[in-house]
Amino acid sequence: SKTSLILAFETSCDETSVAVIRDGRKVLANEVATQIKSHQRFGGVVPEVASRHHIEQITICLEQALQTAQVDYADLSAVAVTYGPGLVGSLLVGVTAAKTVAWAHHLPLLPVNHIAGHIYAAQFVQPIKFPAMALVVSGGHTELVWMPAENQFEIIGETRDDAVGETYDKVGRTMGLAYPAGPQVDQLAQQGQDTFAFPRAMQDEAGYDFSFSGLKSSFINRVHHAEQVHEQLSQVDLAASFQAAAVDVLVDKTVRALHEYPAQQLILAGGVAANHELRQRLASAVANQVRLVMAPAQFCGDNAAMIGAAGWMLEKHQVRADLDLNANPSLEF
Ligand code: KG4
Ligand code: ZN
């Protein structure tokens, strides 16, 4: 059959990214312009600032991606774009760029759900075998997604409050670390020990929902209390104790879900999937249960390559959007 060559756009949050993907699995180019520096002084992503950066970066990323991949518009088979969930002003930049290219070059437009993109990043390791279970952990999402077949998604559990990445970032901020603090908390945790006994919320409850706000509060309270009484706390032990609590819950719920759902594969995806302890603990916990496929670290954070991989699935199933496609900040599966 004809070669698939997809141009993909991702602008849902604070990375502007354009990629070129061949046959869903081969990354020919993946340009990522991060805005992290611009948001750091605010301690988090400022939507207005994000949209403006996307507008400045999108054409630069597009030209660079085409050049790196050594492809011309005429070679493309489709254009894929994240149209939700995410920040509306940010999403609109990618959606507008994708629609423009699709219109100008008479190409099909593939509407990609950002979470599906994170999940399909696993395809850069190996083709996904269905039925599959995915644990999606990012700055905005913490979800267990059951996939009975290609392009079928059922959220069986999700966070009732904060996402796990968001919790990492807030906890890190309390420790004086720069945004996004997840990678630094991960590094510190590797040198410390779980000595603080932070709560594992909903660990023993039925169902697959998560909650991280209790863990966040108890961490912040502990640090503030220490400041008041001038007690010195070990930074590495704090990080290790927080991480142990977060990872415990994620691993336990996932293992439990795999007892109920007959998955052939478990996929670990999203920005927090780069976490060392989560990767290790999940791998050993499910070793005798299913094959674990973890997105390669460079495709865990937001990027357009994963959007191209998910777009390929839509192309295969002839799912297309019209040129009136709109951004949907609260898009669900
Ligand atoms: O998927 P992503 O790039 O953006 C969203 O869609 O949210 O995820 C970003 C999140 C941030 O909260 C960041 O702190 C977290 O992923 N993160 C990590 C690690 N690397 C990134 N959290 C824990 N450990 C890491 N190694
Ligand atoms: Zn993401």
TrEMBL record:
One of its GO terms (biological process) is tRNA threonylcarbamoyladenosine modification. It catalyses: L-threonylcarbamoyladenylate + adenosine(37) in tRNA = N(6)-L-threonylcarbamoyladenosine(37) in tRNA + AMP + H(+). It holds the Pfam family TsaD. Its EC number is 2.3.1.234. Its cofactor is Fe(2+). Its main location: cytoplasm. This is tRNA N6-adenosine threonylcarbamoyltransferase. It comes from the Bacteria. The gene is tsaD.
